[in-house]
Design goal:
This protein is mainly alpha-helical. The protein contains 6 helices and no strands. α1 packs antiparallel against α5. The longest helix has 31 residues.
Amino acid sequence: MTYFLVMGSLALSVLFTLGWALSRLLRWVASGLSLGVGKGSARSRRSAGRGSRAAKTAKPKPKPRASAKAAAKAGATAKAKPVGEPWRITRHLAEWRSSTALALVAALTYLVARLAEHGMSYRPPHTLPSGFSTLLLGLGWLSAGLILLALLHRLAVWRCR
């Protein structure tokens, strides 16, 4: 009975995760088929309008005069630390928002399976089902990889700010 309960919950969580990924994929495909009336074009039109109005109404501010030493130091600092644009893979990772949720689902599934393994080791035969340890090993590596991917996502978001 415990075996069916554990395997059923694992199957349910895997099906839920795959269904969620499929729904996100369908939403992504549907947003790409909007025939040019997408979010990106509306954002660019709004930001272009705001920028031109702000440029027309902005009053020029007088620049405070700085000493020659401060100007030379600021120029040297700017030359020493050039700000570069993030790589394409970094921008792609920053846009992919589902990595944290997938890592959380995989880690919780792995923890529940480990708890079930611990509980099943105390049942009367004291043996686990044949493929359970292999499944547990695969879930562990999958959750570790997804957690690493989620951490890389957070790093990419920070870099692209």
